[in-house]
Structures are given as C-alpha cells and as structure tokens.
User: Fold this.
Amino acid sequence: MKERETRIIHTRGERLSRKTVNPPLERASTVLFDTERALYDSKPGYGRMGLTVHRELEQALCELEGGTHARLAGNGLQACALAIASCVEAGGHILFPDSAYGPTARFCERRLAAMGVSSERYDPRIGAGIAALIRPETQAIFIESPGSLTFELSDTPAIVEAAKARKVRTISDNTWGAGYFHQPLSLGVDMVVQALTKYVVGHADAFGGVVVTKDAGAYNRLAMASEDFGITLAPDDAYLALRGMRTLHTRLRAHEAAALELATWLEARPEVAEVLHPALSSSPDHAIWERDFTGSSGLFGIVLNPIPEGGMDRFLGALHLFGMGFSWGGFESLIIPCDEQLTRKTDGAPTRPGRLLRIHVGLEAVSDLKAELDTAFRALGQSA
Ligand SMILES: Cc1ncc(COP(=O)(O)O)c(C=O)c1O
Assistant:
C-alpha cells in the first residue's frame, strides 16, 4: 500500500472526457438525460448532489481522514452544523467544549435550543470526567481539539470511551490537525469535520466544509440531513479545495516548522507570559499531543504580560506582514486579539490575566516575521 501523500495526489474518479491530470470543472445546476427512466434513476441527477469534482474531492478527503464516506458542505460552520444536526433530535442533549469555535457554540446554544435540543459546555480538559455529564437523553458529544483560540487538547480516546459506553455519538472538529497531523476516526470518533476553508484550500480564496465517517449508518443520517437542508459546495470552491489537497502535506510541514520556530522564539520574549501551543514541551497538553498527533499546524496563541496604555494599538499598527483578519490556514501570516476566549463561559472565570493574541504563521521567511514582531514589541513597550 502506498503512502498517504501519494494516495491523496493520485485519487482520481471516473472521467467521461479526456484523461487530464485534473478533473473537468462542471458549473451545472441542470444535468440532461435522454429518457424518463434515466432522468429519475441517475445519480447525480441534479447539480446540487455534486458532480465530478465533488466526487474526487470526497475520495481524497476520505484518504486524508481515514474514512470511507464524505459529505461536502458550503463552509466549515455548515459542516459542523450538519454533523451535529444528523446526530440529535428534539428532546435530546449535546455536550460541547467551552473552547469550541464560537459559531459552533452558538449553533448549539441558539439553533439547537430552537429545535428542542439542549446543550451544555464542558471543560475541554475534562477527559474521562465527561462520563458524569452524560445524561440519559445525551445524544452527541462534540470535540474540538485543540480548542479555538486557547488551544487546549481534549483526551479524545477517554471521551470516546465514555461516549461509547452510553451509546452517545461523537463528532470531532479536526480543522487544526487537518487530517494530516491528527485522525480522530482512528481514535474511535464517529464523524470528523473540517473547515476546508483553512488548510485544504490553503490560499484564503474559497470556502468549503466536509464531514467524514467510516460508519455507513452515520453516513446515511448525514446524507438525509444534508438533503433536508439542501447543503451544497459550489463547484469552483470544490475545485480549489481539490487542488489544495494535492499540496496539503508539503504546506502543512512548512507551516509546522515555521510556527514551532516562532513559538519557541516568542517563549523567550519578556513581553510574552505564555505561548499556547500543544506541541511545545511547556504545554500542559504535550503528552496528549505526543500520543494523538503526528505534527502541529501553523496556528497558536500567546498571552502577553501587562502592557502600557495604548501598547496594543502600537503593536498592531507596527505589523504589516501579519494581517489582522479572521480565518487562517492560508499562505499568509495573520494575527488577531481575542481576549474574550480567556474567560470560560462555564463559570465566567478568566483563565489568565493578560491579553490573548492568536497567530497564524504563513509561508513567509520566519526571519522576516521575527524581525517584524521584534519591531512591534518595541513599539508596544514605549510609554504613551
Ligand atoms: C475550528 C474551526 N471550525 C470551523 C470553522 C468554520 O469554518 P468556515 O469559516 O469555513 O465556516 C472555523 C473558522 O474559523 C474554525 O476555526
């Protein structure tokens, strides 16, 4: 059996036309048929079901995540909502981590509530303790490891064990591990979700989402929920995601190396109180990272020591290579202040003093990124 990198590059579906390296991009709602029978029996019978590019992307994503069935969505949030909606019904209950991506938490607390499903946050480091939160009506546990913005790892195998003992379904948002550095399906999770918008697309120019599973029953429920909501991925976005798949592993290794170099450099800076990066040996989650991950991506956080008044504005104003904007996973470096995530919603308690910054390390030369941050730190320290 060939290596995964090779298999991902060489996934190729049935082609009707010439044997090109890449599949044809069909921009189509309507598909035409010659007979009434073909009209009703053919699959795909309508563009919403996806065409050649979609099938090839699904195949490559199954290779990536170690699954057998994939369902595409228009963006990562839609994929999270789809996976969750396929696992719960009115009267049920879902557990999700307090450090979950904000809009996923909002979906659980606002949309599911409107659908008669209750939700509850858990401490992402709860591990086997999750068993105490599982109720008779609990139908699903959502995992996101590392957590958004604060980067705690969850003990996925321990959560899966507790869930399976009570016949509760598990879903893992694997956007950070990108399927390449982390494979929750191999740890027993029922469904894995990715925002393809991040590393798979890799160039900040398209959206996409996917849910992958190796359980045919789970896939049937997913397919039904997806059909009910009319979830699709635009063909052009699917094409860009498939193109991104072919270079994902080389880009991820470059993001990983650059992020580790920068994170280690930041750990030694006097302005930095803490670097939140599970692959650093200083991380309280390092043992879980070593056990469950084969690498780390380009996204991590830093907590700053107290700063003089106006310091943050001066710091951010001195940055040019680091853009300030939402999203991550592209070739360019990004930074956002995101202090709110330091406060746990479970008890309203701040986990740490100081200001939190999330950094995405792009593919620029690390020496240039360090030089720019050095200038920005000097500006931060100046008195107002
Ligand atoms: C961990 C995680 N999951 C899901 C999403 C949602 O992805 P999208 O922006 O494609 O909806 C994001 C977006 O930032 C994310 O960080």
User: Anything to note?
Assistant: Residues 77 and 104 are 7 Å apart (CA to CA). The mean pLDDT is 95. The pocket of pyridoxal-5'-phosphate is lined by residues 75-77, 80, 101, 144, 148, 173, 175, 195, 197, 207, 209, 327 (CB under 6 Å). The chain has eleven helices and eleven strands.
